[in-house]
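Fold this: MPN domain-containing protein
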Amino acid sequence: MVKDLPTESRPREKLLARGPGALSDAELLALLLRTGIAGKGVLQLAQDLLDGFDGIAGLLQSGGEALQRVKGLGPAKRAELQAVLELARRALAQQLRARSTLDTPEAVKHYLQLHLAAKPHECFAVLMLDSQHRLLALEELFRGTLAQTSVYPREVVLRALHHHAAAVVLAHNHPSGSVSPSRADELLTRSLQSALALVDVRVLDHVIVAPGQALSMAERGLL
């Protein structure tokens, strides 16, 4: 229990004396949660959260439904945690958008994970890029069920022309947790490549994301 710790070892006092960098992930999360639950102190609750979501990165990509399943997180704690996680997502997204280019698969995967990985439904989105691969826009164009999304090449072409995009990165999420591309994913990618080539827009990649992971079809040689 926090109250049983020496004063200098308590998260709040430790932060004030030594700065936030001196605290562990669990200690920082405990400061946000403030209190534990019956039979479990706040530090243990924080550590259990981190273990359950595979660390800060997994927690950052989690959605509200996942947090609802955590025993001990009532509406107030969930609301505060979701607010802080959303602020963190927006800060990271702002930093990525400020980059001069999204020129590496890792940068693209990171950006798309922030926006799509936690969605409970399957959706298809497109990153619109200029000729130097600078981000023009991210558009979520189609939304489906957990099992299927209908994607219309004509609409993708129209949106690319609207943004005067020179290149695009296709993306969709797999709420099931697997990022393995299906045969349908490969066929869709080729169909969109052909449609966009008619208006001189290159498809640089098709990224599949899920909580905690992402796959680049270009890196796998599937493009």
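The chain has a mean pLDDT of 82. The longest strand covers residues 135-143.
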